[in-house]
Amino acid sequence: MGVNASLDTTLAALADPHRRRAVDLLARGPRPAGELARELGLSAPTMSRHLRTLRESGLVEESHPEFDARVRIYALRPEPMVHLLKWLEESEKLWSAQLLAFKAHLEKAAP
What are the HTH arsR-type domain coordinates in residue numbering (predicted)? Predict the structure, then answer.
């Protein structure tokens, strides 16, 4: 998957407020799916769908503790966020340059 496709997938996954909140919770450390569901006030099936989207986007990874394979622990993966941050920084540079050029143009045009 190319960087643009990966960025599109990341942004699509983060478009949902429940998934963004899950990412916020996972930023504090790995958590079981059930704990995420409770903290977000979601049913287990709904949480499962959100976690599947986050997993498929590459934002989170799933593991199983040795003591119970039924338990799923989710943790953030940094790579998609690094690509998003880089894109945002590049966009900010572009817009800053455009705004500075516009400001210079207006100042030249002013009597």
Answer: 1-96
Q: Which DSSP string corresponds to 60-99?
A: EEEE--TT-TT--EEEE-HHHHHHHHHHHHHHHHHHHHHH
Contact assessment for residue 80 and residue 59, using Cβ atoms and an 8 Å cutoff: yes
Summarize pLDDT for 41-60 with one digit per residue, the tens.
999 999 999 999 999 999 99
Helix 17-26 to helix 3-14 angle (10° resolution) is: 100
Q: Looking up tokens 């966009």, which residue turns up?
A: 91
Task: Indicate yes or no: pTM above 0.70.
Answer: yes
Please choose, from the candidates 81, 84, 85, 65, the residue with its C-alpha nearest in 3D space to the C-alpha of residue 73: 65
- Reading the block at residue 88, the tokens are 């945002």
| The CATH number, out of the four listed (1.10.10.10, 3.90.180.10, 3.60.15.10, 3.40.50.10950), of the domain defined by the range 3-78 | 1.10.10.10
